[in-house]
Input
Amino acid sequence: MESLIKYVQEEFVAKKDLPEFSAGDTITVYYEIKEGQKTRTQFFRGVVIQKRGTGASQTFTIRKMSGTVGVERIFPLNLPAIQKIEINKRGKVRRARIYYFRELTGKKARIKEQKRK
Output
């Protein structure tokens, strides 16, 4: 049964051509919002806290600070509303899921940038 679900997801779910990113990267996600008859593009810029799941069910969590309040948003990777993803900074972290980032504020909440090759 599981292999049948995996087969259907691989064959029929449309894959988007999105850049490769990981935890610690600062990215901007542009997504479409429908308000009645109108649609507009909104963006969400923040640090990737985690990527989880495989295949069509893969999701990623982004965290940003809005004033003094931390805001997190979970996006499915193959969400049809996502228009594009821009990578602003590549972060250097040692973990795949940086939940400790939630407690950090101020200068301690900075992530070192990865050296370019």
Q: What stands out?
A: The helical segments are 2-12. Residues 2-12 form the longest helix (11 residues).
